[in-house]
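User: Can you predict the 3D structure for this chain?
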Amino acid sequence: MQYALYYWTGIQGRGEFVRLALEDAGADYVDMARVHGDAVMQPFLDGHSEGTQPFAPPFLKAGRQVIAQVAAILDFLGPTLDLVPQAASRRMQALQLQLTIADLVAEVHDTHHPITTSKYYEDQKTEAKARATAMRGERLPKFLGYFEQVLKANGGRHPLREHSYVDLSLFQMLSGLDYMFPCRMQALWPTLPLLRALKDRVEQRPNIATYLASERRLAFNTNGIFRHYPELDSER
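Assistant: Here is the predicted structure, written as structure tokens:
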């Protein structure tokens, strides 16, 4: 099957979590907005296209189905792309972990937009600085420490004891945090050896390495979820 991925041009954003799964599996897909422009998504968002109306991108079209929300898309793709164990209990565990990643992604975004997404970062810098202090000091150690424990409990290499879409999503999250908080992550890495090793292994997977070296992999920038503002970073 050829999949159609819909996400904004110019940023990695949440669409990158889906894109990494498609790339890792060597799936046949079209990045629709990059080919046709962002306007190609509007009929779906307005409810004028076949399939369930999504609230926002990313969403995936597979045949007549339209699936929105990163975790739901990955849960749908996982069995077909061999990126999740077949057992129902393990598939549920993968979804649970992916939703926890989604929680962290939401908090990361709200670090630089703590009041509202309708205002620029420059309009809420004071509040963002306070939010970033809490993120660096409290939330990152809590979330990342949890995922380190999950890896340890499952043999140290994979959250589900075998490669899955969760590995890919953890790689993306860690890569984004490295860009966003380089000083803080440098201080945290010694406490997260299993996560650091997982990130390195995913980066070296053949299809992922090819993708990361291609033009399809956009660079992190200050329009996406993971934004580097030096004033929001610190070792503590």
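Residues 88-204 form a domain with the Glutathione S-transferase Yfyf (Class Pi); Chain A, domain 2 fold (CATH 1.20.1050.10). The chain has two domains: 3-80, 88-204.
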